[in-house]
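Suppose a classmate hands you a notebook page containing two proteins, each written out with its sequence and a corresponding row of structure tokens. How would you begin to make sense of it? This section walks through that situation. The first entry is reproduced here exactly as it would appear on such a page.
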Amino acid sequence: MLARARSLAAVGLLLASQAHAGAVFDLRTDFSNAANPNGPWSYNEGANPLPFISDWIADPGILQPAWARFPTGVPGHIPCWFAAAFVAEDWLLGDVISHCWDPASGQGNSFSNVTWTAPTCGTAKITGHFWLARNIGRSVQVSLIANGQTLSQATVFDGDPYSRANPRTFAASAGNPAALNAVPVKAGDQIMVRLDNVTASGEFVGLELTIELGLLGDLDADLDVDSTDLNILLSDFACSSSCVGDADGDGDVDSTDLNIVLSSFGLDCG
């Protein structure tokens, strides 16, 4: 009977891995100059999606489209968001860059942020990194926020050890890095990266952000995480091979798997 139960649970786990392997949303890959909001992504000042500027930089030698209210040289031209169309400072072609708000050049606007809105219910695995993209004595605070709760926060500044080649990760800046592996979301919930000037003047920040939306912790593949899933995990705890309760897919069942199930407990996507 036990062997049959474990066999059925194993089939359920296989179905779960197929049905909830995860849709991947990548800020850089998905970046668009055609629409804002762009699918689940929105490039904003405060709560407002920014309009499109076909040439944000007032330089005849550079054509840089951006999401911003005005081109450079006009008050209110920051914050902005763009996929780099030229190489400069500490960024390369295609890098997603934002210049955060500051009072001198951001009149009438609010803080710089990009949001991802969950299209469905599930658990979001968040990975990514950031760096100060220009070093002229300024600093910027970068916050990762899910439904109003700050999950990760750090300040990048001129003279820090971080760069495009060696960026600061969201996990390294989190109080609980494991929490980024399974953030429960329902359709319409938002994950935000917010940029705030620390020095009087804001600065450019480079950003990579990937969100994988699945349903971690749903060990029996019934579209929710409940006591059945917890019991499957507990009965399999300390397993090291072919483990039904392996919520994170690393081959064993340990406290990381338990934390995934507990963090998603009560999530019902049925």
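The notebook's second entry, a different protein, reads as follows.
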Amino acid sequence: MNSALSTQHSALLSWRYYEHNPDDAHALEAAVDLKERLGGKITVLSMGPPQAIDAVSEAIGMGADEGILLSDRAFAGADTWATSTTLGKALEKAGPYDLVLCGRQAIDGDTAQIGPQVAEYLGLPQVSYVYDIEKMTKKSMVVKRRLEDGFERIQCALPAVLTVIGDMNRPRYPHVARLIDACGEKAKIKIWNAADIGVQTREVGLEGSLTHVIKTFAPKFKRQGEMLQGDTETVVGELVAKLKENMLI
């Protein structure tokens, strides 16, 4: 295996520290597991502000070999389309690769669109909701993906894009020595802007987005819950009476 790339989004935890998206930690763990079994090289690709270099350093501490941070004001405000375009362009420059691993979804938008859109941009086969990587050769792999009512086993040609779910594994903690090295040796982390990956500002960020958020709000609940008080016998009696009253039993 030549290389496995784990694409990440960076989630803001405080004004000074960024960490990788939770689902992407499982993608990185899957990449490290493949590296331990088959060999190869892991490059972590993340898009975010300069502070997101913390997340990339942590990924190197967890077992990645190198990192690339896509950071440019032109990338800000991107929807999933513009984000996928940015990641796709960067992957084209970072290649060749055998496998692109992504988390199922980001912690902020929860759209689960980035992995499939990156695959579409690159013209690669993709499998989503991957639970297990059972077998991998130079030309293909066999994976198990979760469905609503069970699992599905799929053989997929390589290179490919996989999105993995949180049940797939348990991400390891960063190795202290590797984490210190990653923080001290910035040469392991490349920082690319829009010009570096060959995109125009109109293709990425807010300007390149096909969708725009007009408003975010919490849903209003039309029904009010009612808490029944008393001992078990009294509460059960009142509950049964109310259910009968509403013709539910």
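A careful reader of the second entry would note: The radius of gyration is 22 Å.
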